[in-house]
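Tip: read the tokens left to right.
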């Protein structure tokens, strides 16, 4: 977590532990902190304070967007093939989903998307930046197509992976619903927000005491929300410089690996990605085995696959981009963040090439 976020939250775990829905002095103090945090979050997301619904993270925000919007206007949902499971599975739960394909960079195919849109469609969900390969999606074009072909539909964007790198306030402006999650930009886990633009109706998926203007019941996670706002503020203030610095680190890492390891391929064009994403695959290597060697060497990375019920399946994102099963199973995702340093890149460049070589030697 960002130190500013830790500092901001600590008092709300001790002497300022009030419930903002109460009426006594400690509660009023918590309410004030909540209101201030809401104003910051709204500003950072290009929204009005009343448009911010606090949630318990990105998954809940995506579910509220999809399920909540579809409950108001039944009809098919449309999403891109590379959405996070928080969107894909929420759409699946509704049962009438159309999935728009992507190109080899992971960018949604606008012509194919247009073919899926008609006036019956209820929700269209296309993420701002992808969590595996970092691809930035053309949200303005998506929204324009929806307004033209499915004017009753709401546009949702999952901006969970975008916030650290992109001006979400500007880029998500064409969307009716925008989801973020604090732990992706230096806030705590288990807290997030959904922007619900004025005039957009979303039925709650959690019922209870009527908090968040009846859109999300449950006692507020004041400490988490205050910390999220602090993390947002520092992220926005330093974003340009961070993108510049981390982008250079990422380029050094990717170029270094491409030069050092034969049979290494970068996934998608770098120009389509956010600055912190480095995604590669190694011929003849299973990344699950590679991760074990990297872990031992102090490099903590992710693979391009998910283990479900004992079997290793290539990720749906890489499959949608047209990567072969072998390439997907040899994929490695290295994520950089504001805390990444030259020394981290040097370590990765020292550890990864010999690990790949060792696996290839059998
Ligand atoms: N959407 C995207 C793009 C994500 O990367 C994630 C988390 O990895 C989520 C949604 C879910 O967010 P959370 O972990 O806060 O539930």
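Filled-in amino acids:
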């Amino acid at each position: 977590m960002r130190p500013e976020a830790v500092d901001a939250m600590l008092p709300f775990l001790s002497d300022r532990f009030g419930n903002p829905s109460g009426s006594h002095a400690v509660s009023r103090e918590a309410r004030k902190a909540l209101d201030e945090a809401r104003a910051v979050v709204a500003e950072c997301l290009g929204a009005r304070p009343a448009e911010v619904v606090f949630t318990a993270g990105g998954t809940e925000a995506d579910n509220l967007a999809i399920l909540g919007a579809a409950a108001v206007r039944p009809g098919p949902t449309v999403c891109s093939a590379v959405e996070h499971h928080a969107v894909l599975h929420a759409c699946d739960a509704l049962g009438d989903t159309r999935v728009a394909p992507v190109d080899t960079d992971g960018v949604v195919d606008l012509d194919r998307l247009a073919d899926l849109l008609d006036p019956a469609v209820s929700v269209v969900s296309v993420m701002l930046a992808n969590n595996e390969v970092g691809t930035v999606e053309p949200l303005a074009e998506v929204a324009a197509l929806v307004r033209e072909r499915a004017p009753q539909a709401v546009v949702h964007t999952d901006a969970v992976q975008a916030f650290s790198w992109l001006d979400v306030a500007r880029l998500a402006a064409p969307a009716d619903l925008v989801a973020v999650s604090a732990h992706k930009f230096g806030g705590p886990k288990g807290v997030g927000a959904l922007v619900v633009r004025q005039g957009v109706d979303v039925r709650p998926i959690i019922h209870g005491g009527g908090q968040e203007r009846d859109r999300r019941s449950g006692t507020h996670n004041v400490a988490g929300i205050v910390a999220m706002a602090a993390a947002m503020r520092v992220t926005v203030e330093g974003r340009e410089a961070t993108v510049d610095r981390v982008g250079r680190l990422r380029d050094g890492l990717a170029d270094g690996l491409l030069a050092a390891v034969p049979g290494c391929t970068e996934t998608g064009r770098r120009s389509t990605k956010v600055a912190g994403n480095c995604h590669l695959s190694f011929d003849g290597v299973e990344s699950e085995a590679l991760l074990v060697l990297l872990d031992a060497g102090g490099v903590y990375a992710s693979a391009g696959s998910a283990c479900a019920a004992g079997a290793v399946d290539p990720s749906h994102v890489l499959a949608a981009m047209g990567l072969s099963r072998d390439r997907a199973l040899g994929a490695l995702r290295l994520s950089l963040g504001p805390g990444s340093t030259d020394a981290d890149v040097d370590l990765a460049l020292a550890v990864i090439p010999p690990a790949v070589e060792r696996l290839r030697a059998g």
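The pocket of pyridoxal-5'-phosphate is lined by residues 57-59, 62, 84, 86, 127, 131, 158, 160-161, 181, 183, 192 (CB under 6 Å). Residues 222-260 form the longest helix (39 residues).
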